[in-house]
Structures are given as C-alpha cells and as structure tokens.
Amino acid sequence: MFTDFITILDLVGVAVFAATGGLVASRKEMDLIGFGMMATFTGVGGGTVRDVILDRPVFWVEDHRYLLVCLGIALLLYFFASHVQRRYVVLLWSDAIGLAAFAVLGAQLAREADAGPLIAIVLGMITATFGGLARDLVAGETPLLLKQEIYATAALVSAAVYVVFVDSIGVAPLIAAIGAILTGFAVRAGAILFGWSLPRYKQRAGRIYK
Questions:
Q1: Bridge partners, 124 (sequence order)
Q2: Distance of alpha carbon 121 from alpha carbon 104, whole angstroms
Q3: Strand partners, 149
Q4: What is the count of structural domains for the chain?
Q5: Alpha-carbon span 169 to 15, nearest angstrom
Q6: If we measure between CA atoms, which residue out of 188, 135, 180, 191 comes closest to residue 9?
Q7: Residue 132: which domain range?
Q8: Is residue 206 one of the residues assigned to a domain?
Q9: Residue 153, SS3?
Q10: What region holds the Glycine transporter domain (predicted)?
C-alpha cells in the first residue's frame, strides 16, 4: 500500500510541478516547445539531480510516464492557461503542494538507497527545490529559493519530519508521509500568507587589522 502511495505521490508531484512550469511559460508567452521544456524542467529536474547523486537509474528514463505527464500538462496549459485567473497565485500554491510532497518523496527514495538520515533530508530538499530553481532561472525570474520568505526551509522541514517520524519514532511510513507533507505545506503556506522568513545576514563593516 505504501509503495502504491509513493508511486501516486511521485506522479502527482511531477504533474503539479510541471503545471507550475507551464504557468510560468504562459506568463512569458512562450511557444508550445517552450511550454514542454518548462514543464519538463520543473517536473523532473529535482528528481534527476537526486538520482544522479544516489547513482541510481534516473526515474524518468526508466519510466516514460513521467515525461508523458509533463508533456501532457504542458499541452493542456498551452490551450487553457488563459482560463486560469491570477496565475501567479495558482503558481505559488501549486508549487507549495509539490514542494512538500517532493521533499518526502526524495527523503524516502534516499532511505531506500541506504542513505543516512541527514543525507536523506538533504536529498529530500534537493528533490523539492531544484526543479523550481531550474524553472525560474530558465524563465529569467528570481528563483523562489532565493526570495526572503521561507521556501527551501519548508522542504527541509517536510523531509526532516518524515525521516524523524520513520527512523526515530517508528511511525508507519504512510502516516509519516502524510504528516510530513501537511507540516511542510503549513510552513510554506505561512510564508505565503504571512511573509514568514528566517533572520537574514546584515552587512557589517569588516574588521580593520593593524
């Protein structure tokens, strides 16, 4: 049952992230190829980096369904994105859902590859954030990852909660995954709604050595 949940979560996460890529492409008035590229970069980018680091087969090369999902979402949004009002708001919330889900997915796959708890958490964050980073860089926008409000931290929290629940507390993986996704999404939602952010470094004059 948990394996089926992870597979569904993976496909849904790819679809959600691909949709955010398609929405950015629509805001940038790209052609159909641009939609496909943006959806694919966003949908599979983070997972590709994760798999390369873990030295495991890249998931979308092994299973073509992921590419079909990305391209299908791109085609759908090419024709219907104009019907989505306030696309940036939809982008933010869709990205928040994908962020929390992919963080858990990345952490779980890292655990299956016998990665330690810390590495699993970091790879969960990478899985959740690198697709959006690629999307924003290609589109010439400031990546959400680099904005002041909490973003990568939400992914880190989601992955950490999952790993702690499963490895330290012994919570069933399915329950741990649902709890971790809800926690990470709540953190990101707080950042969107209330502007939550971590303290930032403030530039100070350097020390003068004599």
A1: none
A2: 9
A3: 197
A4: 1
A5: 31
A6: 180
A7: 2-194
A8: no
A9: helix
A10: 8-81, 93-165
Place of tokens 């979560």: 9
Domain membership of residue 152 (yes or no) is yes
Residue 208 lies in a domain: no
149 φ, ψ (degrees, to nearest 5): -65, 155
Could you give the angle at the alpha carbon of 126 between the alpha carbons of 131 and 17, nearest 5°? 30
200 in the Ramachandran plot: left (φ > 0), alpha (ψ -120 to 50) or beta?
beta
> What is the predicted pLDDT for the residue at 201?
77
- Beta carbons within 8 Å of 146's beta carbon, 6+ residues apart: none
How confident is the prediction for the chain on average, in pLDDT?
Answer: 90
Query: What is the Cα 6 distance to its own chain's centre?
Result: 15
25, part of any domain: yes
Question: Residue 199 corresponds to which tokens in the numbers above?
Answer: 């303290």
Distance separating alpha carbons of residues 112 and 106, to the nearest angstrom: 10
* HSE-up (13 A, CA, CB side) for residue 129: 24
pLDDT digits 0-9 by tens, 134-147: 999 999 988 877 77
Q: How far is CA 115 from CA 46, 141, 167, 170, 190, in A?
A: 17, 33, 12, 17, 31
Instruction: Say whether pLDDT at 85 is over 70.
Output: no
Instruction: Give how far Cα 186 sits from Cα of 27, 142, 157, Å.
Output: 27, 23, 10
CA gap 105, 123 in Å, rounded: 9
Helix (H, G, I), strand (E, B) or coil at 114: coil
